[in-house]
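I'd like us to work through together how a protein chain folds, taking it slowly. To get us started, please write out a protein record for me. Go ahead whenever you are ready, and we will take it from there:
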Amino acid sequence: MSRIADAFARLRAERRTGLVTYSTIGDPDLPRSAEILRALDRAGADVLEVGVPFSDPLADGPVIQRATERALAAGGSLRSALATIADLRPQIAAPIVVFSYANPLLRMGIAEFARQAAAAGVDGVLALDLPIEEAADFREALAARAIDTIFLLSPTTTDARIRRAAALGSGFLYGISRLGVTGARDRVASGADAMARRIRAHTSLPIALGFGVSRPEHVAEIGGFADAAVVGSALVSVIATESGSAHLIPRVEEYVRWLKGAGRTDAAERADGRPVRV
């Protein structure tokens, strides 16, 4: 069983909502981005998404765009991401997913990327803008190295494409609960429940839901209809705010513990009748 499958099996056994965290390699600099990944693991993040900085992050809002700019200036890249993961893998228990636009992967070459990712200990890859219709060879190259291919689904994804993503994907499916670019919000999108139900109708893979998560009650709410919540921009905002402070790493750890620990209750239930805990 892969680390990702094992993590979601454990969440289900514990009747707990998972937390997937996103941070950008190289933000605010390479050494501290590695420390941040260690802190996220210590704080109990269930899956670590490691963002590869890219010059044209079209799906990202201003918070992650600025993080990408800082990371690129500090030497962040696909190669530095893989090198950092290789260094950290023995120290980190959580599964690690490389989160990247397709361009850096294609520039390295898919076969070579799969080889290096496997050697580094990468558990899954999400190529943000890779069309599902063109992903078969990509998925095959990763599967040959026992790496999960994770697909991103939006409210405008057709049922046919959801079925295709479910057939090709492994590990989990990542649903975005609203249209637009990344960014923290005050509340979970009104269509999040319906989005999760649409995906669930076509797959037994775990579902992680993101875009806008920033508070523990968001994690608890998402746990009512999905297996995990994804926090990105809100966490990156903490990193940006504390980047000049000696308290950066403790604040990151504290924020993730807050997301996971507050609002714990056995009264709430998922749509499938299982109690929700975060």
Observations:
- The two ends are 24 Å apart (CA to CA).
- Residues 179-185, 262-278 have pLDDT under 50 and may be disordered.
- The chain has one domain: 3-261.
